[in-house]
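Students often ask what a holo structure prediction actually looks like on paper. The answer is less mysterious than it sounds. You provide the chain, you provide the ligand, and the output is a string of discrete structure tokens encoding the 3D arrangement of the protein together with iron/sulfur cluster.
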Amino acid sequence: MDAARPRREAPLTEQTLLRVASIHALAYCERLFYLEEVEEIRVADGAVFDGRRVHEELDDGEVSSFTLEAPVLGLKGRLDALRRTGGDLIPIETKKGKSAPGEGPEAAWRTDRLQVGAYAMILEEAFGIPVSEGRVRYLADHKSIRVPVDATLREEVGEAVRRANELRASVERPPVTPNERLCPRCSLAPVCLPTVGATDEQPEPRRVRILPPHRDRMTLHVFEQGAHVGRSGNELAVKPVDGPTHRQPIHSVGAVVVHGNAQISTQALRLCAEEDVSVHWISGGGFVTGALSTSSTGAQRHLRQFEALSDNQRRLDLARRLVAAKVEAQLRFLLRATRGGERPESTEAAIRRVRAPLPAIHRAENVETLLGREGEAAAGYFGALGALLREDLDPRLGFDGRNRHPSRDRFNALLNFGYGLLYRECLGNILAAGLHPGVGFYHRPRSAAHTLVLDLMEIFRVLIVDMALIGALNRLTFDADADFEERGSAIWLAADGRKKMVQLIERRKRDEWNHPAIGGPIDYGRMMELEARLLEKEWTDEIHLFARVRIR
Ligand code: SF4
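The corresponding structure tokens follow.
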């Protein structure tokens, strides 16, 4: 065996073999390697899809690709192509981008040289013949770079395998790379959330360095009773009872929400699972009755969450911030909505009632105190909410106090359904962030609802549901007859009412607001994801940016 190869006591099993692509990630950034290989986070963004297409085209066309394993080396990988020249084998790796600046082997990026070197060493172990050269082909500038597989490259591959295995055995996520230039091109930047701005002298505020402002994948809601979602190639085909079938490419879908008794086929479910598209089932009343999520549930992330949230002081600190964010949102919404005119004394009194508990919330010494203060603010807020509606609104759509399921009036039916949609959004984002939805820090387990989801929702109840609903009612969006159904003393949303509410929340998700963690605008859809990931950063990186968002 070559002296530079990693030494193993015994051949590794297939489960423990490293993917060669992971060596590529490791050479790029150790944190990227850890997120992908240990925490099993993959983000299928545009660049990843482009990369896949390159390989799919190669599969169909000029060259074949195949998988090889090298148990002694500890690697497995899928070669794009293998060329035989005389008696020599030459592994070929194809990249979508441009070659590196430089001449000779230096014109191949270091990460790519390492990758092709690893393939060469796998071939040697698999076929028992020496491989002295590899090639990296760059499609963007049509260059094919020869890479000698010499002692230095072999040593680098061996060291990378050793380091990768060391990281795999660790529960600690490596720090953000100091090389900021790497992050803008990193597919996991929206998950990693690299931060800038902190110094030893001034640890706060930090800023998230990169976060795409918009979601590029939509939520597909299937409302109609009897509608059926099937698979057609790489598309979801939604067939209503009457009317034409609507097709949606799977790559444009982030989540499918099946309302009521709509159906989804096994084939469509499998496509969603393969493409990391979550599927949620929602009852007519807005309850999430089930969810399919293929996001990784990496044990490391759960272990870190359980450990962090078993610390009473951390839980209390997070809960204080959460309740402060919610109550300040209630206060500022009341102030905003009544700005510019003379406020009636009842509204002024309600505003005072919402504001009064804030100092005590910031210094609350236990969760019971927080619950009490939150309740005081809520009484003031909901006492004033009805006054924000236009005077000529159909009185059946007015608000005269909060009630939950089953709703006893139209306003609460809308609010409860809206909160159900918000629950689904928060659940999806918590699962996407790899957190356990049932392990929260503020809510107590009292129902089937996941406590961490209920926690996260608190930041967004006012921002996403209440503000959007009051605005829609004042624009006369809802029809007190056609959009509701009365069943005994309970009021439910009719199909049209549910559809309008879904459209309202989906539109609201696209509205932008400044977020202090990124120092700029971000839409509310992404903001829910950002807050879920910022929560995890509280304990993975000790960066305290969770629940800092405020309306002005
Ligand atoms: S965003 Fe930057 S620090 Fe984070 S994984 Fe990617 S390259 Fe590494």
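Residues 1-14, 44-63, 198-203 have pLDDT under 50 and may be disordered.
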